[in-house]
Structures are given as structure tokens and as C-alpha cells.
């Protein structure tokens, strides 16, 4: 019998990764003001890792409270470059600006996952991946954003490695699954250690 859980996210790729691993997943996005919370945390001096972890926990807590007894996952990603935290772009112009900032540089992507049941945190993990982007011309950036805006508007950093965004990179250090938004291996290992998953 497959383990059933709730993913407090509307991310199609996160849900697909869990389903591909043989889990039964229901998605129930958490309605929280991520931008306001992120700004408040930054104003308090929170580091990027703590921002990702806190947002993941708040999402899990909101959905878990409404679904007693069910394992609930909250997830969040934060992109950091030289102390600057990037959010999802609000316009094609902002997407192009972000890509110009990342062009030719190495940035950190922090992918947080928090598991809860009955509003109580059971497990948490923050994976860090370092990604190095090729130098990108302004012409390429403009064409790339125009072709991919409907997809990249939902992604921090304006790329998806499972799509054309993989072409932007010359190197990656870390977990590929974490780049997609879910440190899957660590989560499955935790389930196995609890006896909720067998091989």
C-alpha cells in the first residue's frame, strides 16, 4: 500500500516527483503571503536558508492544521546571489533583469522541505545547490524570456532545468531534485527510516 500525503504546494513538478516515487499525493496550496513574510524575515536579518525553511514550515503548518492525521509537506525555494534574495519575477522585464544579474556567475539555490502531522514538525531539510550560469547576451536573454515567460514566471531565477533553462548552465554542484524544488532522496530516506517506506 502506497503512503498518502498532502503537498502544500501547487507545484506540478513537486507533485510529479513524489508520484513518480510511488507515493499517493494530494495537492492543497497553502494561502500565505509569501512576499510579505519574505520581506519581514529579510528585514529581521534572516539568512536565505532560514527564509526558505520558515516559508516551508508556514505552508505545511497552515495545511496540516486543516487536515488532522495526514502527513503534510511544505516546500520553498530561495535563490541567493551575493547576499541578494531573488523572488519569482513579476514581469518579463524583471525576468530579464534577474537573468542579467545571474549571467556568468555562480548562485545558491536553497530548497527547503518540512514534513508535519497534526501541525507538529516531524522532519525538515534544506538542500543547497550551487549553479553556474553561462555568460548570456542581452539578445539571448530577450529571446529566452519571450519564448518561456509563461513557464519561468513561476520560477525563482527564471529558469527550469527540466525545460530549456538547462541550456543556461555550465555547472551544477548538488542535488538535481533540489533544483526542481524537492530534496527527494533525503525525504524518501527519512520515510524509510521511519518504516513508512520499504524497498
TrEMBL record:
Catalytic reaction(s) noted: a 2'-deoxyribonucleoside 5'-triphosphate + H2O = a 2'-deoxyribonucleoside 5'-phosphate + diphosphate + H(+); a ribonucleoside 5'-triphosphate + H2O = a ribonucleoside 5'-phosphate + diphosphate + H(+)
Source species of the chain: Sedimentimonas flavescens
Cofactor(s), names only, from the UniProt record: a divalent metal cation
Function of the protein: Nucleoside triphosphate pyrophosphatase. May have a dual role in cell division arrest and in preventing the incorporation of modified nucleotides into cellular nucleic acids.
Cytoplasm is among the record's keywords: yes
Cellular compartment(s): Cytoplasm
Active site annotation, chain numbering: 76 (proton acceptor)
Family of this protein: Belongs to the Maf family.
Classification via Gene3D superfamilies: 3.90.950.10
Name the UniProt record assigns to this protein: Nucleoside triphosphate pyrophosphatase
